[in-house]
Specification:
The protein is an alpha+beta fold. The chain has five helices and four strands; from the N terminus they run βββαααααβ. Helices cover 30% and strands 16% of the residues.
Length: 134
């Protein structure tokens, strides 16, 4: 059974903020996904809808276009894409279906919110960006 919750994010410097931030946490198959935006949630759903995934190899021209000509110094752990950090057991068919089902449980909230807004919030100041690795 998946657990879905909205967790407040605290600042690391200890200062107070007027606009509280939240992340969506989906715990499924002994793993916790953390989403700051609905777009990141959609990316995860799109990724887990596929049964087979293409190679994670990226063409040198694509890297140079995205990262600049000095991409060879940057390549490594610094340039990992979010799905390359996921444990491989989540791609096994029973676990993949559980993850997909858990993430699709949030989908009714997606249509009611503006782009980038976290489900369950009504204020535009509560929009988030990025993915927090688990």
């Amino acid at each position: 059974m998946a657990r879905i919750s909205k967790v407040p994010v605290k600042r690391h410097d200890g200062k107070a903020t007027l606009a509280p931030r939240h992340v969506i946490v989906v715990r499924v198959a002994s793993f916790a996904f953390r989403f700051e935006t609905v777009e990141r949630l959609r990316e995860c759903i799109k990724y887990y809808e596929k049964k087979t995934h293409p190679s994670s190899r990226i063409a040198a021209k694509t890297l140079a276009a995205d990262l600049g000509e000095d991409w060879r110094e940057l390549r490594g752990w610094d340039v990992e894409r979010w799905f390359e950090r996921l444990p491989m057991y989540l791609l096994e068919e029973p676990k993949r279906q559980k993850v997909l089902k858990a993430n699709l449980l949030i989908s009714p909230f997606k249509s009611r919110n503006r782009p980038g807004q976290v489900p369950g919030t009504s204020d535009a100041s509560k929009t988030q960006s990025g993915l927090i690795g688990s």
